């Protein structure tokens, strides 16, 4: 089976800017409740699906699509196990912020399980 091509291989500026943008967005979405995370994730997914070509090839929707991608990854970083995209991993519980780490993140899953087991 062929290895999928990295969509950012020809976009070094995008690859360099994304970790910084996600790190910034982590703070922006941290205080939001889960239902708002879900709503935003759907909104961001729609934007990326509609304008992902502008993000990769330039176009009038490039900036909002980049913001949607960064904020969407930040929302997903708050989920158990975090998120990995183009080989970069983010998860808030274990402090992986754009590291080269394979998902699922064992440290994050263990933290989430401990949190669920603890009395409230």
Can you describe what's shown?
This protein is mainly α. It has one domain. 58% of the residues lie in helices and 10% in strands. The chain has four helices and three strands. It has helices at residues 12-29, 34-57, 62-77, 106-117, and strands at 83-85, 88-91, 96-100. Strands 1-2-3 form a three-stranded antiparallel sheet, covered by helices on one side. The termini are far apart. The mean pLDDT is 80.
Oligomeric grouping of the chains = single chain
Uncertain stretches of 5 or more adjacent residues: none
The structural class is: mainly alpha
Write down how many β-strands occur, each being a DSSP E stretch of 2 or more residues: 3
Estimate the helix proportion, in percent.
Answer: 55-70%
Spatially, the strands of the biggest sheet line up as 1-2-3
- Mean pLDDT comes to 80
Q: Classify the beta-strand content into a percent band.
A: 5-15%
Number of domains: 1
What's the main sheet like?
A: 3 strands, antiparallel
- The radius of gyration is 15 Å
Distance linking N and C termini: 47 Å
Shape: globular
**String of helices and strands:** HHHEEEH
- Please tally the helical runs, counting DSSP H or I stretches of 4 or more residues: 4
Sum this structure up briefly.
With 120 residues, this protein is mainly alpha-helical. The protein has helices spanning 12-29, 34-57, 62-77, 106-117; strands at residues 83-85, 88-91, 96-100. The radius of gyration is 15 Å and the shape is globular.
